[in-house]
Amino acid sequence: MSYKKIFLKSGKDQSLKRFHPWVFSGAIARAEGNPEEGEVVEVYTAEKTFIAIGHAQIGSIAIRVLSFEQEAIDHQFWVKRLKAAFELRKTLGLVTGEQNNAYRLVHGEGDNLSGLIVDVYAGTAVMQAHSPGMHFARYEVAKAMKEVMGDDLLNIYYKSETTLPYKAELGQENGFLLGGHAEPIAVENGLKFHADWLKGQKTGFFVDQRDNRSLLEKYSAGKSVLNMFCYTGGFSFYAMRGNAKLVHSVDSSGKAIELTNKNVELNFPGDPRHEAFAVDAFKFLDNMGDNYDLIILDPPAFAKHKDVLRNALQGYQKLNAKAFRKIKPGGILFTFSCSQVVSKDNFRLAVFSAAAQSGRKVRILHQLTQPADHPINIYHPEGEYLKGLVLYVE
Questions:
Q1: Angle, nearest 10°, between helix axes 344-358 and 309-326?
Q2: What is the pLDDT of residues 321-351, one digit of tens each?
Q3: Beta-carbon-side half-sphere exposure of residue 284 (alpha carbons within 13 Å)
Q4: What pLDDT is attached to residue 336?
C-alpha cells in the first residue's frame, strides 16, 4: 500500500528518533500529494529516510504517529495493537475478575494508538476519537476490537462529538457501532455504578481514579467526608464502604447529583449517611463550617491548553486554600489535577502556596497518579495527566 509522503526540515527528526509520537507543524518542510486531514501519511527525514507513519491533521500537532516501522495501517495492524492492549488489561486482572468489569482498554499514546481512547463497562466499549484520523478509522477499529475481544465485547458506542477538533467539520454523531441500547451495571472493586456514556462526561465514568478511591476507602472509617466535584459519586460510595460517619457529595450539575444518588442507592440502599448537593463548589466551600475531617477535591481540568496555565494554577491554589482553612485539625485532604498541561511540579507548587496561605502544618502522605490501565508511554511523558496528593493537615 502506498501512502503520501511528508518530509521534515533538517534537524527536525530528533524527537522521532527518540520515539515521541507527535510531529509538530513547524517541523515539516513539504508534503507530496497534498494529504487530506485524517489521511495516513509516511514521514521522511530531510535526507529522505523513512522514520514514521501516522495520521495527518491540521493544527500544531500535524501528525500523530502510529508506527515507527514501515508497515501498512490495515486490519492486521489494528488487531495487533488492540490485542497488545487487551493482553495488558488481562495481566492487570481487569478483564475476567468478578470484582471488576470496568477498565480503560486503550489509552492513546500509552497504547501506541495516538488519538484513541476506549473505556469498557460490563461488555460495552465506549470509543472516543481525539483526531480526525481515528474518527475515519472508527469502523476498522470496531471490527478489530470485536475480533480481539470476542464474547467479552457486546456493544461498541462511539462518543466523539465533543472530543474531535471542531475546525475539522466532520459532522460527527454519537451512536452504536456494534450492538444496541445496553445499560449495564458496571463493577469496580466490588462496587456497582451506572456509567452514563449517552449524556455523561468523558466516556461515562472516571475509571482513572480506581486505585485512588481504594486508598480513600482505607482512610474513611469514622470520618465526616466531603466529596467535591463528585460527578458520579465514585469517591462517595467508596467512603461509605470504608465506614465513613457521613458523606456529603457536591457538584454544580443536577444531573451529576442524580447519578451520584443512583450509584449510592445501588450500593447502600436507604443509607442515611449520604446527602448530595447541587451547588457551585466554591460557594459551598465558602459557606460551610469546619464540619469535615476528610475532603476530596477532584475538579474538572482547569487548563485545556498552555495559554490558560497561569489562571489554572491560581484556580487550584484558591480551591485548595479554601479546603485548608476549613478542614478539621488532623484532617486528610485528597487533592487532584487532571489537566495534562499542569505538570506535577506546577500542581504541587499551587497546593504548597495554598497551604502556606492557610498557615496550617501540612504533610504529604501519598503522591498519586493514574492506574496501570492508563499506561504512560515512556517516550511520551505528557501522557501522565493525573496528579494527586494526600495531605495530613494539623
A1: 40
A2: 999 999 999 999 999 999 888 889 999 999 9
A3: 22
A4: 96
Selected from 3.40.30.10, 3.40.250.10, 3.10.20.30, 3.40.50.150, the CATH number assigned to the domain covering 206-393 reads 3.40.50.150
For the chain, the first-to-last Cα distance in angstroms comes to 65
CA 115, CA 128: separation in Å to the nearest integer? 8
Superfamily of domain 75-188: RNA methyltransferase domain (HRMD) like (3.30.750.80)
Query: Percent of the chain, pLDDT > 90?
Result: 77
Sequence-distant (≥ 6) Cβ neighbours of residue 135 within 8 angstroms: 38, 129, 160, 164, 168, 170, 172
Pairing verdict, β 40-44 and 50-56? antiparallel
**Three cell numbers written together for 222:** 469514622
233 Ramachandran zone, left/alpha/beta (phi>0; psi -120 to 50): left
CATH number attached to the domain at 4-67: 2.30.130.10
Q: Where are the beta strands (DSSP E) in 35-95?
A: 40-44, 50-56, 61-67
